[in-house]
Structure to design on (354 residues):
């Protein structure tokens, strides 16, 4: 990573805020690809893939991690910090506003059936998103076993997620260990 | 004060469990915020997640919704900071060194080892949401119909969620 900022901070904040505001629905990282690779010559495709992998590898919500990684690449640490604030603030304020309305009873009672219908549709949405990722990235018997074991522990068996990761991750690392030179 | 601390600490350690995305942390988050602390009901949690799907930005902004219910605006702000700030700082630190780190064969092994764990967690997230939001034949049919429409990419996700709401309203769910 070079020490020279590729873009002005104000420009970065504007683009990231707009990306945060317009990223709706599944596959939100794709909006970033469009904003910084396709529409602006800010980041090369291979750099984007590298930042995307990093954002998925590290703990934390992927979308915010990606904003930080891209922000750091474009304008250093300040770019990372302001990039994060810019993508989160619009959605956070909107959701806070909705939460105030919801808990003050502005949604009830006529809206309850609407929320239940949307909730059911969200189940369909997350199922399709997850199925696409499974189809695209689960390769080999070891990966299938690890994914299945994690799912069974955390889902139906209701094992604490920290414990489940502590049990499954070492096995997965061993199964995916680098070959000896 | 103790309540705010518990809220902040809970979302902080939950953020570290977001392996491969926010969906994966949903089962544990529901256990903590509904069953353990009772900050929201199951219904409110599902509604909050649904609203976060309709709101721009990451779905993990659902913590703003839960935080607000538990401790008002300070709760919402602290929940968001706890969920996003520490992991973002970690990303910023690692991103600057990543070019060198990834040359290590163990970095690739860690990447490959974490991917299926993240996918298993996501699947558990789908399972948890389904158990909370699908309770009868109508909601099940709605979920299947929404999945079918999205699988063939007939409508964008937000339109499908809104259409689900319309059907639910008409059916008087």
């Amino acid at each position: 990573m070079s020490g020279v900022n590729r873009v002005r901070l104000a420009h970065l904040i504007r683009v990231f805020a707009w990306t945060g505001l317009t990223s709706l629905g599944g596959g939100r990282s794709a909006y970033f690809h469009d904003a910084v690779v396709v529409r602006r010559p800010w980041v090369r495709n291979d750099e984007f893939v590298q930042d995307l992998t990093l954002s998925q590898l590290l703990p934390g919500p992927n979308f915010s991690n990606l904003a930080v990684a891209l922000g750091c690449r474009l304008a250093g640490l300040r770019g990372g910090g302001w990039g994060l604030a810019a993508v989160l603030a619009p959605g956070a304020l909107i959701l806070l506003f909705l939460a105030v309305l919801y808990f003050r009873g502005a949604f009830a009672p006529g809206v309850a059936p609407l929320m239940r219908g949307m909730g059911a549709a969200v189940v369909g949405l997350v199922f399709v998103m997850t199925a696409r990722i499974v189809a695209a990235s689960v390769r080999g018997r070891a990966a299938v076993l690890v994914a299945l074991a994690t799912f069974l522990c955390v889902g139906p068996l209701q094992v604490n997620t920290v414990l489940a990761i502590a049990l499954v991750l070492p096995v997965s690392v061993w199964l995916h260990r680098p070959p000896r030179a | 004060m103790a309540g705010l601390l518990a809220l902040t600490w809970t979302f902080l350690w939950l953020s570290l469990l977001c392996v491969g995305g926010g969906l994966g942390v949903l089962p544990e988050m529901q256990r903590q915020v509904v069953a353990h602390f009772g900050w929201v009901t199951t219904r409110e949690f599902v509604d909050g997640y649904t609203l976060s799907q309709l709101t721009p930005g990451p779905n993990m902004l659902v913590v703003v919704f839960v935080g607000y219910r538990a401790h008002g605006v300070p709760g919402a702000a602290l929940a968001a900071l706890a969920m996003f700030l520490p992991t973002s700082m970690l990303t910023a630190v690692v991103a600057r060194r990543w070019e060198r780190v990834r040359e290590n064969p163990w970095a690739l092994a860690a990447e490959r080892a974490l991917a299926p764990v993240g996918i298993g967690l996501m699947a558990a997230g789908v399972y948890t949401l389904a158990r909370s939001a699908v309770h009868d034949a109508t909601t099940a049919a709605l979920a299947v119909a929404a999945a079918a429409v999205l699988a063939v990419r007939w409508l964008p996700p937000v339109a499908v969620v809104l259409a689900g709401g319309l059907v639910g309203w008409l059916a008087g769910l």
